[in-house]
Design brief:
This protein is α/β, with parallel strands linked by helices. It is built from eleven helices and ten strands. An eight-stranded mixed sheet has the order 1-2-5-6-7-8-9-10. The chain has a two-stranded parallel ribbon with strand order 3-4. The longest helix has 14 residues, at 119-132. The radius of gyration is 18 Å and the shape is globular.
């Protein structure tokens, strides 16, 4: 790495992100706090949080803030989860209405402690949002539900506009990066979605910089596309704390451009790549809806 291209933190210069101007950031944060709602933006320490909040957008995170899994890249707390809050779907809908959102992203922690993995709560949230914002589009970013097809059908029956599930990394890194997840199970989820609802746009996201090879990244993109994935995001992994996995490599903007070309060659038409790209970043624009 060229030392002239780095900044004091040791990160490349292209990872320096300016804070947005304007007062909407605090307004959005106050609104979410008052509604007792969680966002993946805040819980996962997303680098785009200031930008998204300042533009009146956020990714709602339902089912609490404690996750039953302990992925080594994720900043969300691994702990015994709180009981499911039946009032949460309505509060999400009210917050989305207050923000006048036209495109809403709803995700969750993984709740392996629940019989349906929280699928019915996703459905209830979708229904609540639609009751208040009839013309809004809704993207759900779901866990794998441990491969439960009935749980997946519960979510699909609530008619999201886009179904997103992150593959996160290449198959060889799963034991180290996602020890409680299974690569093949996530791939099967995409295939199952397409068998249940062939018209459903399916999306996934990959982090780079964890030690994968370019050959492995290409194979993962091929696996996703062949299993029915339509939309792909690729972003740089950033270490949330010293207790998380180290960054093995910082990809340059040029390398992200090369990954976009690879994805397009495989057959993807809707692609977002870049150091700060995250699964739900600029989701409305990428969806094309």
């Amino acid at each position: 790495m060229n030392p002239e291209k780095t900044i004091k933190t040791g990160k490349p210069a292209w990872l320096k992100k300016s804070l947005p101007k304007g007062g909407d950031y605090q307004r959005v944060r106050n609104l979410l706090s008052k509604a007792m709602l969680h966002t993946v933006c805040k819980e996962a320490n997303c680098p785009n949080m200031f930008e998204c909040f300042s533009k009146d957008t956020a990714t709602f995170m339902i089912l609490g803030s404690e996750c039953t899994r302990n992925c080594r890249f994720c900043n969300i707390t691994n702990n015994i989860p709180s009981p499911v809050d039946p009032g949460e779907p309505l509060r999400v809908a009210k917050a989305a209405l207050d923000l006048n959102l036209k495109y809403i992203v709803v995700t969750s922690v993984t709740r392996d402690d629940l019989e349906d993995g929280g699928a019915s709560h996703f459905a209830a949230t979708l229904q609540a949002v639609r009751s208040m914002l009839t013309h809004a589009k809704i993207e759900v970013l779901i866990p794998d539900f441990k491969g439960d097809k009935d749980a997946l059908q519960t979510v699909l029956s609530a008619k999201p506009d886009v179904l997103n599930h992150n593959i996160e990394t290449v198959a060889s890194l799963y034991p180290r990066v996602r020890p409680e997840a299974i690569y093949e199970r996530s791939l099967s989820l995409f295939q199952t979605v397409k068998s249940m609802d062939p018209a459903m746009p399916v999306k996934s996201g990959i982090m780079v910089g964890l030690g994968e090879t370019l050959e492995e990244l290409e194979q993962t993109l091929r696996d996703l596309f062949s299993h029915g994935c339509d939309i792909i995001t690729i972003g740089q992994y950033l270490q949330p704390t010293q207790n998380h996995l180290l960054v093995e490599k910082y990809y340059s903007p040029q390398e992200f451009e090369a990954l976009e070309k690879t994805a397009r060659k495989i057959g993807f038409e809707k692609i977002a790549t870049g150091p700060f790209v995250r699964s739900s970043y600029q989701a409305h624009e990428l969806s094309g809806l």
